[in-house]
Amino acid sequence: MIITTEEDQIRLGKIADSEYEIYALLKQRYSPRIFREEKIKSGHIKQLFEAARWTASSFNRQPWRFIYAEKGTEAYDKMVDCMSDFNKSWAVNAPLLILTAYKEKTEEGKENFHALHDLGLSVGNMTVQAQYLDIALHHMAGINWEKAQKVFDVPEGYHVSTAIAVGYYGGNMEDLSEDLQESETAERTRMPQKDFAFEGKWQS
């Protein structure tokens, strides 16, 4: 690989140093706070949601729901306004924003205990598809979900969960504060497998 730009250097440095070999797209994925100033192609948007559509779900209930908006639209500005101040400081670099939500109950009116699990699987599918398209997703918990419910007229029985900043990898580091620039180039870390994968019984 010939390293020619700052973007190349950052992306090379972000490749996961996995203990065991895993799928290349998973190793290359990371969550940037800068993106190229380029609209997401409409076909690529459809591919992202198609990947989510074919996610496994409990009893095939498919409880995930999404609202999306392009930069420059009123809906986009409303999404930004629902975010935490920290996320507002950089999410405006993304050409596309998504709100995720899930259906809280089953068709029988019972709590769907697995709805959040299924929503997580769907955005996982979307993330891998995005990586294949050279699109970065930055998932955000920092959102005022109650405000978003009202602003976007989310009906009773559905719960806004997270937001996602979406854009093609790239962008200008100068669009970030000095602190965030340091974060953008920081080494990635993960806990070792022994701390979360236990054989036979739970281990302290």
From TrEMBL:
Pfam families (alphabetical): Nitroreductase
Top-level taxon: Bacteria
InterPro entries: Nitroreductase, Nitroreductase-like
UniProt keyword Acyltransferase, yes or no: no
Annotated region described as Disordered, given as residue ranges: 177-204
CDD domains, sorted: TdsD-like (cd02138)
UniProtKB keywords: Oxidoreductase
Gene3D superfamilies attached to this UniProt entry: NADH Oxidase (3.40.109.10)
Domain Nitroreductase, first and last residues per copy: 26-79, 85-168
Biased composition annotated in UniProt, kind: Basic and acidic residues: 185-198
Family as reported in the entry's similarity comment: Belongs to the nitroreductase family.
Annotated protein name in UniProt: Nitroreductase family protein
Biological source species: Flagellimonas okinawensis
Lineage: Bacteria, Pseudomonadati, Bacteroidota, Flavobacteriia, Flavobacteriales
